[in-house]
Batch of 2 targets.
Target 1
Amino acid sequence: MFASRLLLTLCLSLGTTFAPAADYHFSDAHIHYVDFFQESEGMERLFEAMDASNIDHAMISGIAVAKKWHEDEPKRPRYYAGDDAGAYWFSATDVFVAEAVRALPEDRQRRLHPFLTGFNPTDKNADAHIRRMLELHPGFWQGIGEIFTRHDDLTAITYGDTPRANNEALTRVYHLAAEYDLPVMLHSNITSKRERNPLYLHELEEPLRNHPHVRFIWAHAGTSMEIHRHQEKLDFLLPTVERLLDAYPNLYIDLSWTLRTPYLLDAKGRPAPEWVKLVNKHPTRFMLGSDVVGRFGSLGETIRGFVPFLDALEPDTARKVARDNFLAILPDPARAKR
Ligand SMILES: [Zn+2]
């Protein structure tokens, strides 16, 4: 009481009309528990970050590849792009996630939504591997992904074939996802670093059309840091996302990483009216994500960074985007508990 009277007095004395920001609760639809070396700060740090910023729920996945420390490289790399060494598909990532989640007390387990990611998306045996993993811990995994397909430099250094979202192996995975009612998160870049057109879009669009019963989450709507180093902003992104949302009711957009700036917010942090309009038009189809990898210090700041954009939305839509839309696409049994 005293504090609020003090605040009121302060506002009055400053001559401002003080409208406090909405008190959002969040779901983070895109967290990697480990980094490209399969290392993690651990669950305590993750929950510290979630609790400090009202992040009630989070998707949690591993990283499907491990970066090699090659003997030709002068020092141990710190990121996958740190040197010329390759990366290889790494299934144990799911074991790290499963063990870490299963060791948590029940109330914390309920807040995490594990997605299975450790398989080679060019191998037509991938669906058989995923099925064995799903059966190993029945009901544990609540989604599949983030599946790395077109991923600029990462694609180039990953050993073996480059995955496409529309290849034969993933077609089999989508059938499995439909069978288990699991959402699928796809990292499928909309283009290459240099092409100023949606070069790879058809690879995403084909499964959207062919698998209407699978809920697809398109990670950061096909944008990436590398693309933006070469092309400041993709002019065709907004009309493309708009067309896809109208055409495919099974498509959901993860607003993480390179989508927040420069698309949702401009360089000065002002919300982009055309994106506000699009999200208001499709209030159930967008969700927030941090896309942190193994370290959680920046988690709260990243998620709270969306608040200026949320504040520009209709209040009901803002609440859905901030928290509820992610929970609504989880499989039935998981959704029922929220
Ligand atoms: Zn990611």
Target 2
Amino acid sequence: MACSEHRAAQAPTAGRCVIGVDLGGTKTAAGAVGADGRVRFIEEIPTLNRAGGEAVLDATATLVRRLADRLEADGGGPVSAVGVGAAGVVDAASGVVISSTDAISDWAGTNIATGLATRTSLTASVINDVHAHALGEAWQGAGRDAGSMLLASIGTGVGGSLINNGIPLSGARSVAGHIGHIASPDAAGLPCSCGRAGHVEAIASGPALHQHFLRLGGDASIRDARAVCALASEAGAAGQDSTGHRAAVDAVTTAARATGQALGGLANVLDPDVIVVGGGLAAAGPLWWDPLLKAGRAELMDPLCDIPIIGARLGPASAIIGAARHAFNSQHTSDGP
Ligand SMILES: [Zn+2]
């Protein structure tokens, strides 16, 4: 079934573990995950991002088999399936990467599901990595008790996913969730990674925040968003009121405001039970969170004023857990209703 958003996922039943894989542009992490969501053994390898899709699948299959063998040797029984959360736009029905950035060369067109199934002899299923992140939080993290959850992941890029009854909304063309690519007043005229201009990601991602800091006259020796946030957190203390400090505060505030405004507007469209915010910038503290919440709440229609906007809880394992949940969901689908 290509578009599964009208169904509700069944909770995994006790039994075999699956392997969840978080396949990103720089690293691939995998873990054995039980039906209770507990993760046993996590291993990580560098993604062979210049070697092409087939080489990436070779290395991923080796990692999956190693974890499966380790689980079996540990008495955890044979693994029943592998689920992958992968970078790029992924057609979950076929397991094929439809499009991707150049983070992994020759990635578009790769059939991850068939490629891994052939190499591992396991049933394989695939979703986009942000959907996997969201599915993990919805199953075991900040959205655990929610029927519907909008997740925003704010880091190198700005991504999102709407989970409804345990299933991510993939959309008619597998593109749903690209919350970074809606218009933002704070980003007017700024080039976006998608080739257009004025989108949320062009002001709110980590690299965009850093670029904005430089445009405001910030010191070029401050190399990334994390350093800008650290500088901003010093501002206001005695002797810490330089142009650089003010530029850092302005860049962080603007990025957070653009994120919050977008999330508030999306809440008006989607009315989720909860909004969960993760990704690297979510660790930036009140300097980022306060303007995000203020801007988000300012957008909300009155009946939505109490909607919780909270931080993600699972950390780096969330996409592994979510990819595993997708594998469990797929098993139920193939087993029939
Ligand atoms: Zn864009």
